[in-house]
Amino acid sequence: MPHQTEEIQRMDKNIATVQHQEFSGPIPPPSLFREYDQIVPGAAERLLQMAEKQAAHRILLEHSVILSDIKKSERGQRFGFCIAVFGLVCAFALGLIGREIVAGIIGGGTLVSLASVFVYGRRQKEMERKKMRESSLQK
């Protein structure tokens, strides 16, 4: 009997319980939320304020990124327009002074470049939209 008692005591010492909880997002589930408030009075309110500040900060950052992208796009369109007008004016001027071949090359090159940029931009936007759709479906 002493041998069995010793073995049971050894088994009791080796039993352990593991509990794992997981949550997503800045605010814990209500049960944990209450526990935070019981341990540190006012902790629940502070957690809510922290989550609200974080959300407001993220929204502000996203807004500034969107505005920056719009400005960058507008600037690119303006520069592209200026370059295209310059190329076409040069081609027109060269055509007037009798350099039709050079005018055709410059004018044609300008138009082909504009078309290429337009098509490339469209493809990039489509690829971005497709990636966003796929990532939203995976969530």
Q: Count the DSSP helices.
A: 4
Mean pLDDT across all residues, rounded? 84
The number of strands is 0
End-to-end separation in angstroms reads 59 Å
What is the overall shape? elongated
Kindly state the percentage of residues in helix: over 70%
Give me the oligomer status: single chain
* Largest sheet entry: none
Radius of gyration, Cα only, in angstroms?
33 Å
Strand content: under 5%
H/E element sequence: HHHH
Determine the structural class based on helices, strands and strand pairing.
mainly alpha
Total tally of structural domains: 1
In the predicted model, the low-confidence regions spanning at least 5 consecutive residues are: none
Explain the overall architecture:
- The protein has 139 residues and is mainly alpha-helical.
- It has one domain.
- It has helices at residues 2-14, 30-39, 43-96, 100-138.
- The mean pLDDT is 84.
